[in-house]
Every structure is written in structure tokens, then in C-alpha cells.
Specification:
The complex is a heterodimer of chains A (500) and B (318). Chain A is α+β, with helices and mostly antiparallel strands and 500 residues long. Chain A contains 13 helices and 13 strands. In chain A, α11 packs antiparallel against α12 (411-443). Chain B has 9 helices and 4 strands, in the order ααβαββαβααααα. Classes of the chains: A alpha+beta (500), B alpha+beta (318). Chains A and B meet through α4, α7, β12, α10 and α11 of A and α4, β4, α5, α7 and α8 of B.
Chain lengths: 500, 318
Amino acid sequence: MARQQGWFALILALAIAAGALVASFGLQLGLDLRGGSQLTLQVLPAGAIRSVDHEQLEAVKEVLERRINGLGVAESTLQTVGNDQLVLQLPGEQDPTRAAKVLGSTALLEFRSQRPGTEREMANLLPLKRQAEAVLASRQPRPQPVNGQASPPSPKVDLSAEDLAKALRGLGLTVPAGSSEADQLKLLLDAVNQRIVALYGPTAIAGKDLVTAGRQQQATGNNWDVTLKFTPQGGDNFAALTQAIAGTGRVLGIVLDGRSISEATVGPEFKSAGITGGAATITGNFSADEAHDLEVQLRGGSLPLPVKVIEQRSIGPSLGAENIRTSLSAALAGLALVAVFMVVVYRLPGMVAVLALSLYALFNLAMYALIPVTLTLPGIAGFILSVGMAVDANVLIFERLKEELRSGNTLIRSIDTGFALAFSSIFDGHVTGLISCAALFFLGTGLVKGFAVTLAIGLLLSLFTALTCTRTLLRLLMTYPALRRPTYFLPARQLPSAVA
Amino acid sequence: MTVAPSPRFRINRHRRLAWIGSFVGIVLSLVGMALCWLNPTIRAPLKPGLDFTGGTQIQLERACDNSCGGLTTSQVQQQLAVISLPPEPGSRSPNLSGSVVQLLDGGRSLTLRVPALASEQSKALVAQLEAQIGPLSPAGTAINTIGPTLGSQLLRSSVISLLVSFAAIALYITFTYSGVFAFLALLCLAHDVLFTCGAFAWLGLLAGVEVDSLFAVALITVAGYSVTDTVVVYDRIREQKKTIGDLPMVQQVDVAVDATLTRSLYTSLTTLLPLVGLLLFGGSSLFWFAMALSIGIAVGSWSSIGLAPTLLPVLSRR
């Protein structure tokens, strides 16, 4: 008797604590429930590195974090997944497009000078590059005019189909049949850029020689420049590099991720000392956003290994809210039916079970708030399923209880035996469930993991509520003589006449 | 010494029926999966969804009440054909002519399945499509892009975790019961999983239903549930050996199944209730998940009542 009351006090205290926990911490909802975007980035091995290890993944993550901070997106989280993946979550209506672009490129910046003796080839390639770029730019959809101010009409540039085909053949390229003009232009541009980069000498200055990067608008037009500030060592290297090519007509190439983004000649006036001052400007005709993104990338440093965006999911907030509303109402409707079923079939213990299962739901929510578990749709599914298992535990117990009553045992003894006999099957069922959860959690991917976590929490709590809460409540009720009637447990006709 | 109870329901009298039922179901499932495999548009035992094939899926909601003009899938496809996408360095512009367009809610919302697009490209696609069929409600837009490598990764990790959990469960049952019990539990589990897959193969063939990563989660759940259900009967047999002593295995099974029958049916019913709730009122994203679970759980209680216990005497005799 005193033991029951002790247990009851403990359960009551736990329920209050659980309520307080849920109220104060609240629940974290996953992006599929509240809307937002998720990017999965795969880190690719490169060069001498055959497989990505934990240290390299952390190094990549560090750089990406600096870039994310530079972008100024709110409440984003970046997590490592497995050995070679990173997941970025952007809640709310934030544009994942920019993030994908800024995070996805290596941003390896190199300054390289043109090798002597390649002037003729460069003189052929550079005009071709300018032309292809200009044609491609003119084919892009023009940005919407801002404040009613019409954007300047695109310059009339064109490259006839024959000239394009001739240029492609000149570079030894075969054009896939049926490819569009834009595809062909891109093909041409890629090839030209490769040829240009091939004409450069070794890297003289790289991204690590930068102190900081910035941007400024050009004096004329809407284009932006990206400004660079070198370390003292980098500044010296830059001076030496510019001095070597000053007045020769050879170009200084700025190479980003293996693509030549800017080529500049250095005037003869720098012949004596090179360009000093430890600063430089990239004039690549950037738009404001492009300049900002490059600045963020250069400031964050280049990635030690290349990454690739392999998954992008975004869901509008109303779709998320709709999902949670409908799924919640569905789950509640189903559970209400389960409650009705339990009370109809099992009478008094059925009511006790409904109370215990309500506590069970509360404990689950408290665990989600405490751990914390981010609730996603598969997570909710895991929860619903664990409710099924918790109900099953009660069904097992009550069926045993009924059996004992039918075979003529007293009420109190039947309750005790019912719990004792049902224990082993409940335990085995829950252990096999937990074994599956462990396998899913340690070997599964994100979605499957969320499911495994809520199911495992549910199974552990179900063992506790079925064996402790239901039992304590039932025993406590049995201390009231008025409730100690077998007909509150079984229909009278099923009872052996001796007891009824 | 207690007298051996006489069960009201003797499962072994009906075991041929149970075996034939399961056999027919399994054959139908295998035929469904084979037909799926032979189908030139599917070429897999189940119709793989975006999660496994890779690609971009765009869901759009039009922001208009009744003023929206009617829309047909061929109209949308024509518009897709003329859309020009911004180029992405290092890759060709994707070909949109093979896109799959689905209209929902009488043309109010639509789903597009296109080759994998870079995020700028999908943005441009939505912007250009909005000019034609707009206005669109930005809050009702969902864009998912899955790289082709991710799908195979997901498949691999799901299969590995499934196999590992099978092995661990088999070990546990061998340890607590016996090897024959473990073998039959795994047989039942394979039966339930195969049955669910077969049902979705037919759904894929006849209704175009695709399996996604949630389906993999559902299969894993069905497997766990199947074992739990089977274990309850096993537990009863183990307990009987202590209380009513040695009976022929056939009788042991009859008594145990009879004693646990109510529980098995009630438990399946109570687990199915929330799932039926999800089927009827749940969000569209969980509909097929709830369907897979419902099928699997119904089949699971069939196999744990009719299959595992009735095969036990057959195997134990040897």
C-alpha cells in the first residue's frame, strides 16, 4: 500500500516535470514541418587524397561556416553527416540558390603569369573569349528593371552559326548533335579557358596570401570590382610577379577554381619595382551579388577539398504547416479511436490504460524537448508506431488478467499474475524493436535516423509506463473497495460462477 | 499438474489454408515485381521515386481562387519545352522535354519532375513558368533536388541496416528461444516484407505509385513489427512447456495461438487505427507511408498467427 503511494507520487512528480519541460523548452520542428531548405554537400577526394577522413571534413566545415556567416543567413545549421557529407539547413523562406552557389565552389584563387613565348596563342584566344562571353551574356534573360528604370539595352553582339562552328573546329572540339547554341558557346568558353590556363606559369600567389577581400563599384556603369589585400609576403610576391611581366604584353591571370576569370596586362611604368602596396583589384565585370559572393568566398578561404551539392530540398512554410496540422489531427483521431476501443473492451483497466498512455505521450514529448529531438514527419511516424507498441503492452497485460479471472483467481491475484506473465513477452517484443532501432540509427541516413530515435524513445518509455504507470494506477484504485468488482474487468457471463 | 486446455480455435486444422494463402500471396508479389522489372519504363522490381533515381521535383501552388484558368498537362509541357535555363559551368543545359507533369486539386497545384537542376536553374524555371501560369503562392512551393549518387547511398544504407537488424534479431531469438524459432521468425519477416513490396510493385504498375525513402522506413518497421508479433506466440509456447508440460508440438501450438489470438487481433487493430487515421486525414506526404505500414502490419499478423506457429511442428519434428 505504502509502496503504491510512493510509486504514485513519483509518477505524479515525473508528469509535472515533463509538463514543465515541454512548456519551457518547446519542441524543435524539422524543416519538413515548418518549411525551409536543406542542402547536402558531398566532400570529394582530390589529388593525393583518396578518401575523406574526419579531420578533412572538419576543415571543410570550418571554411563553409565562415562563408555562411559572411552570407548572413539566419538560424542556419551546418552539420557533418557520416564521413564525407555536410548538411546545411536554412529555415524559413531563405533563398537556397545563393547558398548553394557560394558553398559549392572551392574558391581556390591563384595569380599566375603568362609564360614567355605564348603571346601569339594568347592573342587568338582572348578575343574569342570576350566574344563568347558577350554573346552568352546577351542571351541571358535580362534582370527586371528596378524602380521603373529600364536596364541599359544589351549591346548588339552576335556570333554567326558558321563562325561558332569554325571556332569550335579550330579548337579541335566535336559538337554533340542537337546541342543548343548556349551549349556550344559554353563548350567553346570552357575550352578557351582551359587553353588560357595552360599558357600560364606556376602559381605565384594563392588565396592563403590574402589578408582580406572587399568590393567596390566601378566609377562607370553598374559593375563591381573585387578588391584584395595581401599579406606582406603575398604583397612582395605580387610586386615581383608584376615586375616580371611589366611592359612585355604578357598577361597576369587571375584563376579561380581552375577557370581564368580575369586577365590583365601590366604597363611598362611598373618595370622598376612592380605593383607595390600589397593590394590588387579584380576587374571581372561582376554584378553586385557576384562581387559579394566572391568576397565572402575569398574571405572564408578556399576549401581544402572540393564539394558538390548532391541534394537540395526546400519546402514552403504553408506546405510544412499543412503537413503538421493534418498529420497531427490524423494521429489524434486514430488515438481517440484507440482510447474508445480500450475502454469498451477492457472497462476499468482500459480507462487506467488510457490515462497511462496519456502520460506516456507526455513523457515522450518531454524527452523530445530534453534530448533534444528535432521532430520530422518520419519522426512523428515513429512516435505513432511506438504508441501502437505501448498499447500492445497494455493489451497483453489485460488479456492475461482476463484469463486469470476466467480461470477463477481472485481479482488482486489476477492483476499481479497478469503483469508477471505478460512481462516476458512485452520485454522480448520491445528488445527486438530496440535492436532494429539501433541498427537503423547507426547505419541509416538522416530520414531513417529520425524515425529510429523517436521509436527507440517510445519503446523505452513504453516499457516504463506499461509496467509501472498502469500497474501503480491499477493497484491504487484497488485500494478502494467500491472498485474491487470483477464486473469492472469482465462481462459477468465470462466469470466463473464462484466469483461472480 | 494442470490439465491441458482444449483450445476453441485450432490453428493447425486450418494450416493448409494459411500456407496456400501465403503461397499465392508470395507468388503474386513475385509476379508483380517481375512485371515491374520487365516494364520498359520501370526496369526495377519497384517503381523508384525521386529519392532513388535522382532529379528535381518541383511542387507549385497557384495563388488564385476560382479565377485560375484551366490548365492541362500538355499545356504545361509545351511551356516547359520553350523555357531557357541559365547555363551551369561544367554541364549541359538539361533537356526538359521528358518532364513529368502532374496536376492536383483540379489544376490549382502541380508537380513537375525534371532532370536534376542546379538551384539557379530551378529558380529560373519557376520564375518563367510563373509568367505563364502564375501567380504562384511562394509559401506553397517545394523544390527537391536529389543527386544520383545520393539515391544509391540511401538504398545501400537502408539495405545494410535492414540486414544487420535481421541478423541481430535472429541472434537474440536463437539465444532466448532456439534456432528453429529464429529461422521461422526470419521467414515470416521475409514473407511480410516481400508481400508489402509486391503490393507496391502492383501499385506501381497499375497506379504509378513510386517508392521513396519513407517506403524503406516502412519496410524496416514492418520487419520489426513482424518479429514482435511472432515473439508473443513463441513466448507463450515457452511458458506452456513449464506449466502444462510436454505436449506434442501441434497441440502446444494450437493452445498457444488460441490463447494469444485475441491479443494479436486487438494489437493489430489498435496499431492500424492511427494508421487508418493517417490514411484518411493525414497529409499527402504520409499517405503511401501509412499504406505500406497498414499492408505490412495486416500481413504481419496473418503470418504470426498462421505461418510461423504452424510451420514450427513441421520443422521441429525433423
